[in-house]
Specification:
Elements (H helix, E strand, L loop, with lengths): L1 E5 L2 E9 L2 H4 L13 E4 H7 L6 E6 L2 E11 L6 E4 L1 H8 L17 H12 L10 H44 L1 H9 L4 H38 L12 H27 L3 H6 L3
Parallel strand pairs: 2-6, 3-5
Antiparallel strand pairs: 1-2, 1-4, 3-6, 4-5
Length: 277
């Protein structure tokens, strides 16, 4: 582990030194070469640096400025990658490896445990870490977030339904005289309902379209507020989710319109026309 600094922000991160020609067998990076270091995306965002910027690496009371030549996609933990030549330039010493990567295909959890126990029999090996284990830990950490998301969706749905019911009640109450006049003029029941509920459907569609654009704008802010220091959550726009949310809102509108039919039917033409606007 080492300390890096940029824009008055300091972070302790893991550094990985790997031969560029063998890197693709274990880790896929973008824009890697011997002229600088590669940062993970979350770390780059925290330090507010981009390709071409310089960062300061601190180690044993020594400081070395290096160039960021790449930012790679990574979702768990923060890393800085460099080649052996770059390591020699930064730390002014030859690299001594204390970690090795290995690909082990078609292996189940029991076989992983057996293999790990065999490795631990070697006194030079202190421990093993499997990518599968990291992925499982990552998923577990997000499982709690999923329940919170569903809670927000439920609360938002209930709120939208209550707002629609209240708005319809207010709309009908304030237009009782107008609706009573239409009934007196001979409007059929369905014609009167269409006259009132058509407005609700149009406003719902317009509100849904506006809400989608506002939601896209605040999505990144909400996701970033839910992130922790060592985990990056991807900000993705899913068209299917947008369509489902619009359909849910429209269904609430249709349910509300159905509930308000009885209220329109109970409008007393004589009493409503006698009331003072």
């Amino acid at each position: 582990m080492t300390t890096i600094e940029a824009n008055k922000t300091s972070k302790d991160v893991f550094y990985t030194v790997i031969d560029g020609s063998k890197c693709e067998d274990y880790i896929k990076l973008k824009n890697r070469n011997n002229k600088g270091v590669v940062l993970t995306e979350k770390l780059a965002n925290t330090l507010k640096v981009k390709n071409g910027d310089n960062i300061t690496i601190k180690e044993n009371d020594k400081e070395k400025k290096v160039k960021v030549i790449g930012i790679t996609e990574n979702y768990l933990y923060n890393y800085i990658y460099m080649t052996p030549n770059m390591y020699n330039q930064v730390f002014e010493t030859d690299i001594k490896y204390n970690l090795f990567f290995a690909n082990y295909d078609n292996i189940n959890e029991d076989e992983e445990t057996t293999f790990a126990n065999k490795l631990k029999e070697n006194t030079k090996i202190s421990g093993t870490v499997y990518t599968r284990t990291l992925n499982n830990d990552y998923k577990k950490s997000l499982s709690g977030l999923s329940s919170i998301v569903f809670l927000f969706i439920g609360c938002a749905s209930l709120l939208s339904f209550m707002v629609l019911v209240n708005l319809n009640n207010i709309n009908i109450e304030e237009r009782r005289r107008e609706l009573a006049t239409f009934k007196l003029l001979g409007f059929y029941k369905k014609e009167l309902e269409k006259y009132v509920f058509r407005e609700n459907i149009i406003l719902t569609i317009l509100g849904s379209i506006l809400g989608v654009f506002i939601g896209i704008g605040v999505l990144g802010i909400i996701i970033q507020s839910a992130e922790v220091e060592t985990i990056m959550l991807p900000v993705e726009f899913n068209t299917l989710n947008v369509v489902i949310s619009i359909l849910i809102t429209l269904s609430f509108t249709l349910i509300t319109n159905f509930m308000m039919k009885k209220k329109i039917k109970r409008i007393d033409m004589i009493e409503s026309l006698k009331s003072v606007e």
